[in-house]
Design goal:
The protein is 47% helix and 16% strand. It is of the alpha/beta class and 418 residues long. The chain folds into 3 domains: 120 residues, no CATH class; 56 residues, no CATH class; 196 residues, 3-Layer(aba) Sandwich (Rossmann fold). The structure holds guanosine-5'-triphosphate (GTP) and magnesium ion.
């Protein structure tokens, strides 16, 4: 096992050094911050990473056949960072370093290597003799972290990071995409705006998690409830869902509202019911809901509208939870894509006491950036079931489909619409 200590000004840079020197399979043994140079608190903090690698994968390194000299430069451009690392190891395994090997005796290099290794081992022993430094973040301490290896300070990633920022993709989603790019793309691809856009379209498509479409049938009733904050578009989305199912030939659709607070809200749903010629039930207690469900037990699809609740009103969310528990519904949380990520996270947390099936994002037409759809779905680990992008019923409803959502996130749906 080869053990080495790496130092850098920041942890991501130290990890980058590890990756470059030992490759992607390096095992991180420890990380810590030490102060070097200067006096007391003025000493500069340095990140120190001790990493090890089991072997240098000699078999995989020998796989590629030598290319003609004139092609080498072009091929080099296409290599990922991982490939470049493997190539550098191959140079070493040949026994002749790629530069200066004519001017020095090979033994001189070997001797230097041995000295370096002794120095590194000494440093490691010294470090192990000290009391362990606490609080190494788990993501860094684990050998194969899923989260960022790439960092804001890595120059080659700047273009990708700017694009992520432009699309409103942040947090975990951005970190995962950066890492994926770091592992897959060559420096040339990372520097090509068109290549970055194509990469993102493909990678986002893979990351998006969509809920299965409605499955209804004569003997398989589906009960769907829309819950969420006030004014996000629940009632409009219910109407869009009902209309689109009717257009697909689903015959038995019933709307139920448990929006017991406002006459106007009940009227809004009744108007939609009349236009579509489908029954609308208004219930004010869980018992009434049970009776309504019984009356419509032959229907294929029951869509339940609920009153918007403030995420701060725990009582009202608890009351809604009780209501829905008795009805065995599939609960979709409706969120406006115009809300900020931090607020959305809080809303999902507060509505999370209701067993949530998926997320519906509305008002995508009002957003400059739609990255929030990916950010929230990923961090909250909830699939997407529908998106809406306008007030028209039923046209402005998009059944969640990874390609369509990717189009909204990357903005390519706008290019297509032009
Ligand atoms: N731009 C845009 N407006 C929408 C969209 N969906 C709904 N709306 C509008 O948002 C407003 C509120 O819609 P509602 O369906 O009444 O919202 P709600 O969630 O039922 O509201 P409450 O019942 O009061 O909680 C209406 O003016 C809708 O036309 C959308 O996708 N885009
Ligand atoms: Mg409503």
């Amino acid at each position: 096992m080869l053990v080495r200590v790496f130092e850098a000004e920041t942890m991501p840079l130290a990890l980058k050094k590890v990756k470059e020197a030992l490759g992607p399979d390096a095992l991180i043994l420890s990380t810590r911050t030490v102060r070097k140079g200067g006096l007391g608190v003025f000493r500069k903090p340095i990140c120190e990473v001790t990493a090890a690698i089991d072997s240098m994968e000699p078999e995989s390194l020998k796989e590629s056949s030598p290319e003609p000299a004139e092609d080498r430069e072009a091929v080099q451009d296409e290599l990922t960072y991982q490939d470049l690392w493997k190539q550098s190891q191959q140079n070493h395994s040949d026994g002749y370093p790629s530069t200066n090997h004519n001017s020095k005796h090979p033994d001189e290099d070997n001797l230097k290597d041995v000295r370096n290794e002794i120095d590194e081992l000494k440093a490691l022993v010294k470090q192990l003799a000290k009391p362990a430094e606490p609080a190494v973040p788990q993501a860094i301490a684990t050998p194969r972290p899923q989260k960022p290896k790439a960092s804001a300070e890595v120059r080659e990633m700047r273009l990708l990071q700017n694009e992520l920022e432009r699309l409103g993709i942040g947090g975990e989603a951005a970190a995962a995409l950066e890492q994926y790019a770091w592992e897959r793309l060559s420096p040339r691809q990372l520097g090509d705006p068109q290549g970055i856009r194509e990469f993102l379209a493909e990678a986002i498509g893979r990351m998006i998690h969509v809920a299965a479409p409605f499955q209804t049938g004569p003997n398989r009733q589906k009960r769907v409830a829309l819950v969420g904050p006030t004014g996000v578009g629940k009632t409009t989305t219910i109407a869009k869902m009902a209309a689109s199912q009717l257009l697909r030939g689903v015959t038995g659709v019933t709307l139920i509202t448990i929006d017991t607070y406002r006459i106007a809200a009940v009227e809004q749903l009744k108007v939609y019911g009349e236009i579509m010629n489908i029954p609308v039930e208004v219930v004010t207690t869980p018992e009434q809901l049970q009776q309504a469900l019984k009356r419509h037990r032959d229907k294929e699809l029951i869509l339940i509208d609920t009153a918007g609740r403030s995420p701060r009103d725990d009582m009202s969310i608890a009351e809604l939870t009780t209501f829905l528990e008795t009805a065995d519904t599939e609960n979709h949380l409706v969120l406006s894509a115009t809300t900020r990520d931090r607020e959305l996270t809080d809303i999902v947390k507060r509505f999370g006491r209701i067993p949530l099936h998926s997320l519906v994002f509305t008002k995508l037409d009002e957003c400059e950036q739609c990255g929030t759809v990916l950010n929230i779905s990923l961090t909250q680990q909830l699939p997407l079931s529908f998106l809406t992008n306008g007030q028209r019923v039923p046209e402005d409803l998009i059944e969640a489909d990874a390609e369509a959502i990717t189009g909204f996130i990357t903005g390519s749906h706008r290019e297509k619409a032009v």
